[in-house]
């Protein structure tokens, strides 16, 4: 594989407690369907924030708006005070990394190579330098490999550095995705259902891993359906229902909120959308399903 180079830093670090992510009024429409409506969300440095909601609530769409996969129809997303660019590789270079709901590894590359790929936004050697493999390139390549190995040690996959990604058990593939995201040296990590398909033991290990990532100084925003995982892990939890933020608060507040229970059980709650709005959304969804979808992770 080609790579690399000298480490470049992302945006300067946020002061403890300052907003790392500040999303304001984010709205995403697909034709007549409003998948995300006027959502505000902040993630402060040192925080782990959870984003929950029933299926189809707009969680992944919101993530896609934060990471440049979608350009929000309305609203603004700032990372450490600066408006994020609208292309995903620039968002990663700015300091926001993510994993996907469906694992997206380079399955025919080794574990180490997958992590090295994640470092490309932090390297600055040009094409000629890489082709000529001069001393600058070799030094940078060595540094990059050392950093990749540190990350593999951190997530517990160093012994499998030369295994093909596709031969790893499912839980380890998910860990490798996290290591690859960390390789871009982010200040904010977005995890989309990191424990999907994991057994309880793997889920507990992932919980520990996310705490360790937070302790490294990386703020975390996580989508997850596993409520025990979310409520153990998160300093704050926001609940999306039908594209809107219904509630936000600490775990106890959210768990005790009857509107959240109602949203999950499908029961009506005060100010719930009326039947006319529900019918409108269903019609728009049917129309969106019939239309060709953009080639993204959904
Ligand atoms: N590219 C797209 N084009 C049209 N509609 C879309 C697109 N992506 C998502 N949607 C619609 O937007 C709504 C929100 O979907 P989204 O995947 O963001 O929800 P989610 O909360 O992540 O769901 P889940 O928990 O099932 O993953 C759904 O009605 C979905 O069908």
Q: Care to describe what's here?
A:
With about 300 residues, this protein is of the alpha/beta class. It has 2 domains: about 20-95 and about 185-290, P-loop containing nucleotide triphosphate hydrolases (Rossmann fold); about 105-185, no CATH class. It is about 40% helix and about 20% strand. The chain has 11 helices and 10 strands. A 6-stranded mixed beta sheet has the order 6-7-8-3-9-10, sandwiched between helices. A 4-stranded antiparallel beta sheet has the order 2-1-4-5. Strand 1 and strand 2 form a beta hairpin. Helix 5 (about 135-155) packs across helix 6. It starts with 18 loop residues before the first strand and ends in an 8-residue tail after the last helix. About 40% of the residues are buried. Mean pLDDT is about 85; it is low at about 1-15, about 270 and about 295-298. The structure holds adenosine-5'-triphosphate. The site of adenosine-5'-triphosphate (ATP) has 16 residues, from strand 2, helix 1 and helix 11. This is ABC transporter ATP-binding protein. Keywords: ATP-binding, Nucleotide-binding, Transport.
Write the layout of secondary structure elements.
Layout: E1 19-30, E2 33-44, E3 48-52, H1 59-66, E4 74-79, E5 82-83, H2 88-94, E6 96-98, H3 111-118, H4 127-132, H5 135-155, H6 170-182, E7 188-192, H7 200-215, E8 219-223, H8 227-233, E9 236-241, E10 244-249, H9 251-255, H10 258-265, H11 275-290
Parallel strand pairs: 3-8, 3-9, 6-7, 7-8
Antiparallel strand pairs: 1-2, 1-4, 4-5, 9-10
Helix pairs in contact: 3-6, 5-6
Adenosine-5'-triphosphate binds at residues 30, 33, 35, 53, 55-61, 285, 288, 293-294, 298.
